[in-house]
């Protein structure tokens, strides 16, 4: 079936409700995304019809609870869907991953508030969670002003979530843990946000991860939250680091795509008997298999504990550290695999629109995200040693509430 026909066909179908259906639709859309990848990169954002095709798979509603009519996919299932979409295109997979957090954020809001904010389960949220703006306390809420980077998917979002430092009467408010400056997450309608065309990057160009500004916007208290306070959700998704769990699906999907492409190209070019091709592909496949098992093994163990009523504190130190470590390792391994396959392919890989050229740039850019950085090593290592992690949220640790 032609790419346009498949995309249009998916777009006409009501988003499915089950994990198997969503995964099947993601897999069906992947070849379309592959055909559109050059266009997506050139446009530096997802075209509107691609966004609608993603929406129709059900990916954006994955995190909504069943009692809201959502599919409530667990973190393993979510990661599989993101992996399938990223196998088609890295930027689309990245935006799907970001946009699928809407239902997860809803769990940190009061239930009636979330129902008003998200009348459709297929709405998209984007934005930067790290505090970078100013939130001044006023009657009924906050006045928010600031500029944020890395608004992946902000060009097609319905709501924008942003971290902001709290002030009262111009003075920084302390955090609940006694820190000098507390922060909060604020939700602002996309119409009240100005997007700046700054996203000229090495890779992930199609994610539209532009800077954006919010200027003197009133945010009611009910549209704010912190990850320490789950107000509207229960179960395996009602935990502070839930939005990070499906991220490695992007890296795994891209690595799998690069391996499949290189193997098929080698066979087509008559290099199946070439020794260097054989050992390089096998070595990369070994790394991929071990890395993928590490990600899903850590997620499944977490799910096993949470699904039986446990908490993240019921994981052993090694099991808890395995979650951020396997996530980081997935991104770094994906970049390593693509780099080795790029070298194996030699000069033919350097010409655009070679997918290896694009995957090389995409995985390089992915690895600049905090979840793929050495701060994760310090965080996990400190946790194992009983010391202070620098990024405790990656472990699901939040400040104590006073």
From TrEMBL:
The keyword tRNA processing does not apply. The keyword Oxidoreductase applies. Keywords: Oxidoreductase. Residues 250-373 form the Acyl-CoA dehydrogenase C-terminal domain. Signal peptide: none annotated. Coiled coil: none annotated. Residues 26-103 form the Acyl-CoA dehydrogenase/oxidase N-terminal domain. One of its GO terms (cellular component) is cytoplasm. One of its GO terms (biological process) is fatty acid beta-oxidation using acyl-CoA dehydrogenase. One of its GO terms (molecular function) is flavin adenine dinucleotide binding. Belongs to the HpaH/HsaA monooxygenase family. This is Acyl-CoA dehydrogenase. The lineage of its organism: Bacteria, Bacillati, Actinomycetota, Actinomycetes, Pseudonocardiales.
